[in-house]
Amino acid sequence: MQEQQTEATIKDMKNEPHMPEGLATMMKSQGYHFVGKHSATKICGYTSDSLKGGESCYKHRFYGIRSWRCIQATPAIGCNLACTFCWRIIPEEVGFTWNELNVVDKWDEPEKVVEGLINEHKRIVSGYKGNEKVDMKRWNESNDPAHVALSLTGEPLFYPKMNELLAAFHDKGISTFVVTNGTMLNALKALTILPTQLYVSIQAPNKELYGKITRAKNLTATWDNFLSFLNYFSTLNTRRVFRLTLVKELSMNDVKGYVELIKIGKPQYVEVKGFSYVGGARNEKRGLSYEQMPRTNEIKEFAAKIAQESGYIVTDYHEKSAVALLCIDKKAASERIIKFKK
After folding, report:
1. Cα(176)–Cα(169) distance, integer angstroms
2. DSSP letter for each residue of 229-251
3. DSSP sequence for 80-99
4. How confident is the model at residue 14, as a pLDDT?
5. Which ranges of the chain does DSSP label H, i.e. alpha helix?
6. What is the CATH number of the domain that holds 278?
7. What is the average pLDDT value for the chain, to the nearest integer?
8. Residues contacting 29, CB < 8 A, separation 6+
9. Is 342 a domain residue?
10. How many whole angstroms from its chain centre is CA 327?
């Protein structure tokens, strides 16, 4: 009996994602590290750069997070949308018919997910110790993560134990930045513990473009649910952010549409960001091109137009990420830098 229990425990701890082996292999080749059945982490380029004394990400500039102490992760690999600009691999596009909405038979416990993500993050950054370019003070701090961005891939609100997951991170003094696609209204309503900062991705300014970009299977139902999500989102007592991902010749032609969504969601912060022609976005089936990435002046001009129409304040800009920050008022602008654990 004791041997059976030990064997079961070992099997349960293995990082074996519930997905086709070929898809898992492709993701591993892109730098994904799996944790349990449905979670994953991957080192962010800015985490890597900042460890070597280089530039930190726009969240460092805008909100004060320390990129070298940040875990980029997800508690749910699967997603219910297939956004054209997304960097992730969409299974159907590479020959897999895997149902992402039915990824597991039993969800991993929150404590296991948190410990697994932290341990895997430490394992990843351990490889930087021998790099002569690495700032050792930052490397030591990277082994004590202070932030987690649940934004890597998939839809994090699929994870049904999000309250416990957030609590487990917060108990360790780790701030939580959650990015959702705005479709999981019931999951949002079920949150009694809120992340440090909650993002909703604004994929398009109107229903027609939303359908074209997200490729939602039931456009009317998904769009209506998205609007309801934004309405409820506006009531939440946490730092709320809209992230607009802009694609030239596709989603940069309806300022008033974006402003109407901003009026519904009432975020304190709006990030106006250009899409990146990387990863899955390069798949020819998406129909995008390198030339559709907005240039610095185009992002700034579009952000200024949104500010003019919405009354928000253009507050900052991060050149490398091609993202502008708008704040709802001067108070939000003055409070954008968060006080995190030391």
Report:
1. 7
2. HHHHHTT-SSEEEEEEEE-TTTS
3. S---TT--SPPGGGGT----
4. 60
5. 2-13, 21-29, 45-51, 58-63, 110-126, 136-142, 162-171, 185-189, 207-214, 219-233, 255-265, 296-310, 330-334
6. 3.20.20.70
7. 93
8. none
9. no
10. 20
pLDDT by residue (tens digit) across 214-256?
999 999 999 999 999 999 999 999 999 999 999 999 999 999 9
| Cβ–Cβ under 8 Å, residues 135 and 52 | yes
**Which single residue is written with the structure tokens 């410990």?**
115
Q: How many domains does the chain have?
A: 1
Residue 339 located in a structural domain:
no
Distance CA 3, CA 14 (A): 17
Residues of the chain with pLDDT under 50: 1-13
How far, in Å, are 121, 177, 193, 271, 340 from residue 196 at the CA level? 20, 6, 10, 17, 10
Residue with tokens 């080749």: 29
Domain span including residue 181: 2-334
> What is the C-alpha to C-alpha distance for residues 31 and 123, in angstroms, rounded to an integer?
13
User: 145-176 b/e with 16+ CB inside 10 Å = b?
Assistant: bbbbbbbbbbbbbbbebbebbbbbbeeeebbb
Please write the tens of the pLDDT for every residue from 166-182.
Answer: 999 999 999 999 999 99
Q: 317 pairs with which residues across the strands?
A: 324
240 DSSP β-pair partners: 198
Residues making up the chain, counted from first to last? 342
